[in-house]
Amino acid sequence: MIALAETRNVTMRFGSFAAVDSVDLSVGVGEVVGLLGANGAGKTTVIRLLLGLVRPSQGEVSLFGAPPSMATRRRIGYVPQTLGLYDDLTVQENWTFTASAFDSTRIALPPSISDARDRLVGTLPLGLQRRVAFAVAFSHQPELLVLDEPTSGVGPLSRARLWQDIRDSAEHGTGVLVTTHNMEEAEQCDRLAVMAGGHVVAEGTVAEVIGDRHVVEARCDSWQDAFSVLDAEGLIVQVQGDVLRVPASPQHVEEVLTRHHLRADVATVPANLEEAFVSIVSAGALR
C-alpha cells in the first residue's frame, strides 16, 4: 500500500516530557485511519508532526514520500479542532481565500454550504461551521485529509453527514487520518491506532483491536443494586438496558454479588470496541 503520510519511530520531546514516543503510523490511498486516545495521549502532536508544524526529536516523518514541506502540504486538506476558519469573514470569503491560497480552480461553493454564502462564519451553528470547514479543506481536492476531532460538539445528524463526506472522499481515493473519541465513529474507520501516554498501544481493524477480549454480562432483578455494589468494588460497569457489562472474571462478579445477597445470571461474552479501548488504554497507562 502506498503511504500518503507516515511516521517511523518518531519521538517528540518537550524538555524532559515525551509527548510522542517511538510512534509508527501510516495512511494509505483511500484508507480511513482512526487515531484514538484520551486527551493528552499524543494524537494532536502526531498530526502536527505529520503536517511539519513541529520537527521530531528523533525518527522520520514523510508526506507523499518526502519530508513535510510547503509543496507536500498543498496536497493536504486539514481541519484542526479550532476549524481553521475566519469567524469575521463570510462563508464565501473563507472559500475564496482558501481557493486563492491553494491556487484552486474550484470557484463555486458546494451546494451543502451555498445557502450560507453571505453569513459570517462566527454566527453559524457549530454543525454548519464544521461542514464549512470540511468543504473548505476539500476545496482544492487534496489527496490526504487530516481531521482533528471533526465532529466534536455537533449533533447526530451533522455527525452523520460529515462521516458520509469522509467515506465519500475515501471512496474516491483520498486518504483520511481522523482523531475521534466516539466509538461509533471509530467503527467506521478501516484501521485504528490507539494511543496512550504518547505510545501506539494497539492498532489494526476494529476486530483486531478488540481481539479475544471478553466481558461479563450480569442479569439480575435489581440491576441498580448490582451496579452500586460492583462499582463500589472498583469495577468498571456499563449498563445496557437492564444488563450490566463488567470487564472482570465471572467468578469475581459472582463473588461480589453473592457477598451482597444479590442473585444474577452471569455469562462471558465478547467485548465491544469501547470496552476493548478502556482495557487497552488502562494497560497502556501502566507502561
Give a quick summary of the entry.
The protein contains 11 helices and 13 strands. By secondary structure, it is of the alpha/beta class. The longest helix has 16 residues.
Kindly describe this structure:
This protein has helices spanning 43-50, 70-73, 91-101, 111-114, 126-137, 156-171, 183-186, 206-210, 223-232, 250-259, 273-284; strands at residues 3-14, 17-28, 32-36, 58-63, 76-79, 144-148, 175-179, 191-196, 199-204, 214-219, 238-240, 243-246, 265-270. By secondary structure, the protein is an alpha/beta fold. The chain folds into 2 domains: 3-209, P-loop containing nucleotide triphosphate hydrolases (Rossmann fold), CATH 3.40.50.300; 214-270, UreE, C-terminal domain (Alpha-Beta Plaits), CATH 3.30.70.790. The strands form 3 sheets. The chain has a 6-stranded mixed sheet, sandwiched between helices. Strands 11-12-10-13 form a 4-stranded antiparallel sheet, with helices on one face. α3 packs parallel to α5 and α5 runs parallel beside α6 (156-171). The protein is globular, with a radius of gyration of 22 Å. The chain starts with a strand and ends with a helix.
